[in-house]
Specification:
By secondary structure, the protein is of the alpha/beta class. The protein has a single domain, classed as Nucleoside phosphorylase domain (Rossmann fold), CATH 3.40.50. The strands form 2 sheets. Strands 1, 2, 3, 4, 5, 6, 7, 9, 10, 11 and 12 form an 11-stranded mixed beta sheet that branches. Helix 2 packs across helix 5. It is globular. It starts with 6 loop residues before the first strand and ends with a strand.
Length: 267
């Protein structure tokens, strides 16, 4: 890849490679074990881009079995400083409709069994998660969605559940009553791990369904329905990703993501 140029990472993989005229694949190792799949490297609008299939090349990894540390570290090894994290997600409010995109700016972690830090000592490291997503990337995404006439929401709170099961109706109603708009199984710890490595991060939640119990006459969410709506949204996602990547500057001057470790360590 070209030196002195931004490297942009995208989790997603399958269905996105058509964005690249030419690409190369490589298997990588990390200190945290094997990542979900190969790194796919290429260019979009003269920008260096690295893709990885979050769930594996054949979607064989459920959310709770993904090696998030290996995935994020593999991106870091490839020189990624900006990370785009699209995900299929459910809606917890009527205003956010299936087919909409949401650029979430906050998350709630409800996972249970995931390793969620690179820093196990000997230096105590406490990275702030107050503002987990990069405002600069989010505003670039909002502008791109407007240009592409994609129905979207400029911000939102996403609750991340352990999976692989979907929510009960009681859980869904509780999340909604807490003021949350979006529900998903993969944003955490992916986003925080990226922040620990001082990456800028962007979430694009592709809304596939209304979560269980939100609207009484809507059938509870099913994996089949999620994949159907997600597939319909892939063309919009490709268009949006290209617009975002073209507008990402080489230098980071409008955010503090690159200094997230500055006040995180006790020495």
């Amino acid at each position: 890849m070209s030196e002195n140029q931004v490297v942009i990472g995208v989790f997603g993989g399958t269905g996105f490679y058509s964005l690249l005229d030419k690409f190369e694949e490589s298997l990588v190792e990390t200190p945290y074990g094997a990542p979900s799949g190969k790194l796919i490297k290429g260019k979009i609008a003269d920008k260096n881009v690295v893709f990885m299939a979050r769930h594996g090349d054949k979607h064989e990894l459920p959310p709770h079995k993904i090696n998030y540390r290996a995935n994020v570290y593999a991106m870091h090894q490839a020189g990624v400083t900006r990370l785009i994290s699209p995900c299929a997600a459910g809606s917890l409010v009527k205003e956010v409709k299936p087919g909409d995109f949401v650029f979430c700016d906050q998350y709630i972690d409800r996972t249970k069994n995931r390793i969620d830090t690179f820093y196990d000592g000997p230096i105590s490291t406490h990275v702030s998660a107050a503002n987990p997503y990069c405002d600069e990337l989010r505003h670039i995404a909002i502008t791109g969605a407007k240009q592409a006439n994609i129905s979207h929401h400029p911000d939102g709170n996403i609750v991340v559940i352990e999976g692989p099961r979907f929510s009960t109706k009681a859980e869904s109603k509780w999340y909604s009553s807490m003021g949350l708009q979006v529900i998903n199984m993969t944003q955490y710890p992916e986003i925080h791990l990226a922040r620990e490595l001082q990456m800028c991060t962007l979430n694009i939640s592709l809304i596939t369904d209304y979560d269980a119990g939100l609207i009484d006459n809507i059938e509870p969410v099913s994996h089949e329905k999620v994949m159907e709506i997600f597939s319909q949204n892939l063309s919009n996602l490709r268009i949006l990703l290209e617009k975002i990547i073209k507008q990402i500057p080489n230098e980071r001057s409008k955010c503090t993501c690159s200094t997230s470790l500055k006040h995180a360590r006790i020495t």
